[in-house]
Amino acid sequence: MDYDIAVIGGGLVGSSIAYGLSKKGHGVALLDEGDRAFRASRGNFGLIWVQGKGWDFPAYAKWTDEAAGLWPAFDAELQESTGVDLGYTRPGGMEFCFDERGWNDLNDCMARVRTNSDGAFEYEMLEHAELRKRIPEVSSAVIGASYSPRDGHVNPLYLLRALHQRLDAGRVDYLPNRHVDSIECLHGGFELRTNDERLAAGRVVLCAGIDNVRLGKLLGLNIPVRPNRGQLLITERVQHFLNYPTLQVRQTREGSLQIGDSQEDAGRDDGTTTEVMNRLASRAVSIFPMLKTVHVVRAWAALRVMTPDGKPVYQQSSHCQGAFGIACHSGVTLAAIHAGPVADWVAGGNPHPLIARFHPDRFDV
Fold first, then answer.
1. What confidence score (pLDDT) does residue 41 get?
2. Using CA atoms, how far apart are residues 330 and 45, in angstroms rounded to an integer?
3. Of 32, 93, 117, 176, which is least surrounded by CB within 10 A?
């Protein structure tokens, strides 16, 4: 079957772009390797996060802030068209500090983000007394926190569900359990071989996470990504007490707590370890002593998609016109901008002024 555009990768990045393309009437094939893939989307913490992003990269500070600003309309549009409540709220977010050095480093980071966003980024540094007014349960082990009203959170599994549900109603053929073996660049399009079938498309978008390295080489694209493992703990439901998402602990609308923020270079091993789980649990209890008696009900790990500098990669192949490579580890935060300006660019529109800043040639300097 022929398609206008083939999107390879059915996680949050690929699904957001396919959703944006479908709204413009393009015939899209979304190829998803399925649960055998190292899927980052199922391990996402659910943060829509601006603070700390782009302290060393002005374009990323602006890109992230714009993406977060698009989220209210994006959420309303998805909820209206699917009936799925994503659990999206934007009360602002916090990152906790445990010592004076951490406080000073975080304060410096926030100031740099404000500068790099041309003053658009808003934040406060909350000392312990002020923090306790907002979160009375926090312990004295936390000396303070950064707070930004630009941050929010969402249920990432509901987000993925809503995107796929909306794709079913649009001009998108969702093709699960497809491993793309080869892509051939032909005059005026592409031929993809997956399992025992072939399909043709006028354009191809690579959103396949760490498999983008292999696929990119077929199209003259250099997509330098590596896996970074993150482990998560999920507790039983408890009475609601945490009104703000934080980098270390997040309370869902249903009442369970999500505990995370571990980073490991473990290759393609997406297993859990007792060492990291103990560390995550101990830190959560040090922040909120009340959690000492709360039961953990689930734990899992997933592999983030990391570029050398941790920032996204967006590129169009000069070797195969119509081929695009996209990689990032912020699939939730950037979902709205992927469904909007990035999808417009992939479809042949003018690129957003910031997209060129994320070309991987920056790594050659």
1. 63
2. 10
3. 176
